[in-house]
Protein backbone atom coordinates (compact mmCIF):
# COMPACT_ATOMS: atom_id res chain seq x y z
CA UNK A 1 0.00 0.00 0.00
CA UNK A 2 1.26 3.48 -0.83
CA UNK A 3 0.99 5.87 2.08
CA UNK A 4 0.70 9.63 1.75
CA UNK A 5 3.24 9.79 4.58
CA UNK A 6 6.10 8.31 2.56
CA UNK A 7 7.83 9.20 -0.69
CA UNK A 8 6.92 5.89 -2.41
CA UNK A 9 4.23 7.38 -4.63
CA UNK A 10 6.46 10.32 -5.54
CA UNK A 11 9.23 7.94 -6.60
CA UNK A 12 6.83 5.93 -8.77
CA UNK A 13 5.49 9.07 -10.47
CA UNK A 14 8.99 10.45 -11.04
CA UNK A 15 9.82 7.26 -12.95
CA UNK A 16 6.94 8.00 -15.33
CA UNK A 17 7.78 11.65 -16.06
CA UNK A 18 9.50 12.70 -19.26
CA UNK A 19 12.12 14.78 -17.46
CA UNK A 20 13.62 15.66 -14.12
CA UNK A 21 16.69 17.55 -13.04
CA UNK A 22 19.28 16.39 -10.52
CA UNK A 23 21.26 19.19 -8.95
CA UNK A 24 24.38 18.84 -6.86
CA UNK A 25 24.24 21.28 -3.96
CA UNK A 26 27.61 22.34 -2.63
CA UNK A 27 28.22 20.95 0.84
CA UNK A 28 25.40 18.41 0.60
CA UNK A 29 26.19 14.70 0.27
CA UNK A 30 23.17 13.97 -1.97
CA UNK A 31 21.77 15.53 -5.11
CA UNK A 32 18.49 17.43 -5.13
CA UNK A 33 15.89 16.35 -7.67
CA UNK A 34 13.57 18.89 -9.27
CA UNK A 35 10.49 18.07 -11.31
CA UNK A 36 8.24 20.22 -13.45
CA UNK A 37 4.99 20.76 -11.49
CA UNK A 38 2.98 21.13 -14.71
CA UNK A 39 4.21 17.74 -15.89
CA UNK A 40 3.16 16.21 -12.56
CA UNK A 41 -0.32 17.77 -12.85
CA UNK A 42 -0.67 16.43 -16.38
CA UNK A 43 0.39 12.96 -15.27
CA UNK A 44 -1.80 12.68 -12.17
CA UNK A 45 -4.84 14.28 -13.82
CA UNK A 46 -5.13 11.22 -16.05
CA UNK A 47 -5.79 9.12 -12.96
CA UNK A 48 -8.62 11.14 -11.44
CA UNK A 49 -11.45 9.64 -13.51
CA UNK A 50 -10.50 6.05 -12.63
CA UNK A 51 -9.88 7.09 -9.00
CA UNK A 52 -13.32 8.70 -8.78
CA UNK A 53 -14.95 5.60 -10.26
CA UNK A 54 -13.20 3.36 -7.72
CA UNK A 55 -14.17 5.68 -4.87
CA UNK A 56 -17.82 5.66 -6.00
CA UNK A 57 -17.80 1.87 -6.20
CA UNK A 58 -16.39 1.80 -2.68
CA UNK A 59 -19.37 3.86 -1.51
CA UNK A 60 -17.55 7.13 -0.93
CA UNK A 61 -19.64 10.29 -1.16
CA UNK A 62 -18.71 13.43 -3.15
CA UNK A 63 -17.15 15.12 -0.14
CA UNK A 64 -14.91 12.13 0.57
CA UNK A 65 -13.83 11.98 -3.08
CA UNK A 66 -13.14 15.73 -3.01
CA UNK A 67 -10.98 15.28 0.10
CA UNK A 68 -9.10 12.38 -1.56
CA UNK A 69 -8.41 14.55 -4.63
CA UNK A 70 -7.24 17.41 -2.41
CA UNK A 71 -4.94 15.00 -0.54
CA UNK A 72 -3.33 13.94 -3.84
CA UNK A 73 -2.60 17.58 -4.72
CA UNK A 74 -1.22 18.23 -1.23
CA UNK A 75 0.97 15.13 -1.42
CA UNK A 76 2.65 16.53 -4.53
CA UNK A 77 2.82 20.06 -3.04
CA UNK A 78 0.57 21.37 -5.79
CA UNK A 79 -1.90 24.24 -5.36
CA UNK A 80 -5.52 23.18 -4.88
CA UNK A 81 -7.67 26.28 -5.29
CA UNK A 82 -11.07 24.57 -5.47
CA UNK A 83 -13.45 25.33 -2.61
CA UNK A 84 -15.22 22.29 -1.17
Q: What does this molecule look like?
A:
With 84 residues, the protein is mainly alpha-helical. 50% of the residues lie in helices and 10% in strands. The chain contains 4 helices and 2 strands. It has helices spanning 8-16, 37-45, 48-57, 62-75, and strands spanning 21-24, 31-34. Strands 1-2 form a two-stranded antiparallel ribbon. The protein is elongated and about 50 Å long. It starts with 7 loop residues before the first helix and ends in a 9-residue tail after the last helix.
Helix coverage percent of residues? 40-55%
- Helix and strand content put the structural class at mainly alpha
Largest sheet: 2 strands, antiparallel
Shape: elongated
Quaternary class: single chain
What does the secondary structure layout of this molecule look like, with pairings?
Layout: H1 8-16, E1 21-24, E2 31-34, H2 37-45, H3 48-57, H4 62-75
Antiparallel strand pairs: 1-2
Q: What descriptive keywords fit this protein?
A:
84 residues; 2 strands; mainly alpha; 4 helices; two-stranded antiparallel ribbon
Concise summary:
This protein has 84 residues and is mostly helical. Helices cover 50% and strands 10% of the residues.
